[in-house]
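Bug report

Summary: structure tokens for Corrinoid adenosyltransferase differ between web form and batch submission.
Environment: batch mode, default settings.
Steps: 1) Submit the sequence below via batch. 2) Compare with the web form result.

Sequence submitted:
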Amino acid sequence: MQIYTRGGDRGDTSVIGGRVRKDDIRVEAYGTIDELNACTGAAAAQARELGQEALAAELEGIMQELFDCGSDLAYADPRQPVYKVEEGLAARLEPLIDSLNGEAPEITRFILPGGSKLAAELHVCRTVCRRAERRVVTLAQEHPINEAALIYLNRLSDFFFAAARAANARLGVEDVAYVRSAEVFHKAKKQP
């Protein structure tokens, strides 16, 4: 298979249903998801190096889901699209987030990205995920999209945050506290 096609040499590219400029918001949205996928791959490799096989496997599964998100957002065909991302995909992440969150110490202040290298990689994923979400919101203002993909990205950024904190806890590394932060998160009151 030949890698280069020369089809985009004049600044346009193919999407499902036609061609658009490479700076089109649709390309910006799924391109940012592609960037997030690469960051997720780096985090998965780091997790595997540290022997965190379950986290690495989860991240590799997320990479598949991100590719589905990008595919859904590349759909510019005016006919009814057949989307890959389904509504339940975001809900699948919620018990994982809860479990990871339970591994980390109680949070009372804002934290900065870092601690361990793995946590730093996961925080990069979180911030790129938030940017992807913003790009998809902009795309949705101009074109119909699969809203399940937007919901998934919103939940996924929470997953990356919880995974970063759990990674630090597993490695015995403290989160990096934002030193000028007041206590903004309050401990939950115990139920009677």
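Above is the batch result. After comparison, the two runs are identical; trailing whitespace caused the diff. The chain is about 60% helix and 5% strand. The chain has a mean pLDDT of 89.
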